[in-house]
Design goal:
This protein is mainly α. It folds into 2 domains: about 15-250, no CATH class; about 260-445, no CATH class. The chain has 16 helices and no strands. It has helices at about 20-50, 55-90, 95-130, 135-150, 150-165, 170-195, 205-225, 240-255, 255-275, 280-315, 320-345, 350, 360-370, 375-390, 395-415, 425-445. The chain is globular, with a radius of gyration of 22 Å.
Length: about 450
């Protein structure tokens, strides 16, 4: 079926560049930015760990909410912005792309303020429900109040970065992310321990480091989007309308279920692992750390594919869009699969970093024996998820994530009730990854891709 697009023929360079080399070129700066974020997380954990058990426990209570907000703003709603902007550019409708950018910024501000109000009013209740008591609860509330007071900056920084990525600019957001990461590590340490003239604020200082760095990144990204030579220039003044919000929300809204699915799956597996004993639980914790370390690789390739797919869809070139998607899925799947397979053969290379306990080591090695070889399916599903966002067809990958959760939950109940041996849990984790990868690929293959008529403004 031939799709008709109003506007001038698109001339964006990503519409004609060779697919695989371009994906790798675009993925490289994203990977650097993601690794910088991982380094910040490690540094902040080390800072807080030196403060004692109560601050460390407080940070553990707050961290899941910070991670959830980050995944929602960067990967979910941010993907909706990138998708809408890239499809408009692909259709040659520059005015629409810039109008969508303004609507994306407004959404970021709105969601950020929502998180600020929510945690200000109910933060203590939430952390108490998660098990916080006494000094741990007090410090969790203090830490959360600092971080979430600046939630709008965190949301805006991720939305502005997504606008740039939707236009094909991966370098700008990564440079801003690297600058923010460096500042966050420096300020977090200085304000936590009182380095130099800085006051010693403990866990509050770590929170302030994150808040200030997010604000700086937002300013940098805003200035990048105000440049005359920017592919999409952010305009502050102009009308807002429901259709443009819906163009973003139809992808970003449902995509917000993805991080919830991910967190729910992890919680279910953790609860099941605890039933098998301390060694199995600890072994799962060590093995699953590798999964989090490998996510940036697939994320980087997937985010690189999103604007390429969106531009092609906007231009009516569905064949190129699918070629980009399958190439990205292949690259991410191969990269994660090779690393996972090697560590399944030599698990001690990873396990030995974290433990010398024989029982825990055996459990972690068993995890890698089962799960390592199927990391390829995990990488494939993540990359295709972002490609599907670019096409504006996110329902299939979301359903695949739900199926993974269902497989793990039902299978876990069966394992517990039948007193199955611990290795069966790790086999179940592997089956969940295979299910998500196969079903994501099937949904992407079977879902029709193609643009609607886009109008300027």
């Amino acid at each position: 079926m031939k799709d008709t697009i109003e506007g001038a023929p698109p001339i964006h360079p990503l519409l004609s560049a060779p697919v695989a080399p371009t994906l790798l070129k675009l993925a490289a700066p994203n990977l650097l930015g993601m690794l910088a974020t991982t380094a910040v997380s490690i540094a902040e954990t080390a800072y807080i760990g030196r403060l004692g058990a109560a601050p460390l426990a407080a940070a553990a209570l707050v961290l899941p909410l910070i991670m959830l907000m980050g995944m929602m703003s960067a990967g979910a709603m941010g993907g909706g912005v990138s998708s809408a902007v890239s499809r408009a550019l692909g259709a040659g409708v520059q005015a629409r792309a810039e109008t969508l950018a303004r609507h994306g910024a407004v959404l970021g501000l709105g969601f950020g303020l929502f998180f600020t109000v929510l945690l200000s009013l109910f933060g203590e209740l939430v952390f108490h429900g998660l098990g916080g008591r006494g000094e741990t609860l007090r410090q969790a509330v203090l830490y959360a109040h600092i971080v979430f007071a600046f939630a709008a900056a965190i949301w805006l920084s991720n939305m502005l970065a997504s606008i740039l990525r939707g236009s094909g600019d991966m370098v700008g957001p990564s440079v801003a992310q690297l600058a923010g990461a460096a500042l966050q590590v420096l300020l977090g340490g200085a304000l936590c321990f009182g380095w130099g003239p800085a006051p010693r604020l403990g866990i509050i200082g770590v929170g302030m480091g994150q808040a200030i760095s997010a604000s700086l990144v937002t300013v940098i990204l805003f200035l990048l989007l105000r440049r005359r030579r920017s592919q999409v220039r952010l305009t502050l003044l102009g009308p807002l309308n429901r259709a443009h919000f819906l163009d973003i929300l139809k992808v970003g809204g449902p995509a917000m279920l993805s991080p919830i699915q991910t967190v729910a799956t992890i919680l279910v597996i953790t609860a099941i692992a605890a039933r098998f004993g301390t060694e199995t639980l600890a072994g799962y914790g060590i093995g699953s750390r590798l999964e989090f370390l490998l996510v940036p690789i697939a994320f980087s390739v997937g985010v690189a594919s999103l604007p390429m797919v969106g531009l092609a869809i906007g231009a009516g070139n569905v064949a190129r869009a699918r070629k980009v998607a399958w190439t990205a899925g292949g690259i991410a799947g191969a990269a994660l699969g090779v690393l996972g397979f090697l560590l399944s053969l030599a698990p001690q290379l990873w396990v030995g970093i974290f433990t010398s306990d024989p029982g825990v080591g055996r459990a972690a090695a068993t995890y890698l024996h089962f799960v390592g070889p199927v990391f390829a399916f995990f990488g494939l599903s993540l990359a295709l998820y972002f490609s599907a966002q670019g096409a504006g067809r996110i329902a299939g990958p979301l359903l695949a994530g739900t199926l993974r959760l269902v497989v793990v939950a039902i299978g876990g109940v069966v394992l517990v009730r039948t007193d199955a041996p611990p290795w069966t849990l790790f086999a179940l984790v592997a089956l969940g990854m295979i299910t998500m990868g196969v079903m994501t690929a099937a949904f992407v293959a079977l879902t029709p891709w193609g643009p609607k008529v886009l109008k300027a403004g």
